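[09:14] KT: can someone run the structure on this one? pasting the chain below
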Amino acid sequence: MTAPGADARAPSHGLVLSLFPGADLLGRGFEAEGFCVVRGPDLVWGGDVRSFRAPAGHFEGVIGGSPCQDFSQLRRTPPTGDGLAMLAEFVRVVSEADPVWFLLENVPRVPCVAVAGYSVQRFNLRADECGGAQRRNRCFQFGSRDSSVLVCDRSATARATVQAALATAASRRDCPPFARFCELQGLPSLFDLPGLSRRAKYRAVGNGVPVYMARVIARAVTRRGESRGAVLCACGCGRLVAGLVTRATPACRKRIQRARAAGLSVAA
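[09:31] RB: done, structure tokens below
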């Protein structure tokens, strides 16, 4: 299926499996860039990834945003363990599907994932770097069998920043109408999720990767072969560096230090 607003002339890429899809804004962005997306089971629609088995060799890529609450800095309660359990399920499905590449989205404090046979690049990306209206920082982990990496186009001009966290907008008095809320996430204003409550609709859309950000990443996946030989920041953020420079921004040094201090991974 082609996402609303997709260019019918977009090139056709391989089959992609989307895990933990929810409203699947991430998958819609990939569809808009010419990928064919198959959505896996999700609790929102009565499915459960734990009972899902992926056929090997059919998917070019596996994408997904596993539950992030346990890793969020806004969390007010002890971790439930569900976050790590769902990361392990993502790793399991990738191992079963054996794709060329995979992409995991979560919050910056998520542990690193490790899947046998894949090199993994970890980087953060904000919506306003992709032309969006938010500054929410998202962490992506891109794994590939050929050691290719993603170089995302961060040159888009950001619009006025929306400070409110979209995922909790339904509980706010200044919450925008749902049509406007969808537009902020890159969806058509007429987008709807029939059968869900108002609060659940806001949560499903607000938790999703903005479609315009997903398109930036999908384009980077398409062009990943062009990055071979390029000199990238040592932190793995995917920014290009030149000369003797090894880190693209001051934050990259801190990111390297935090990663070394954490030393966390999820093994296959």
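[09:33] KT: thanks! The first strand starts at residue 15 and ends at 19.
[09:34] RB: yep, looked fine to me
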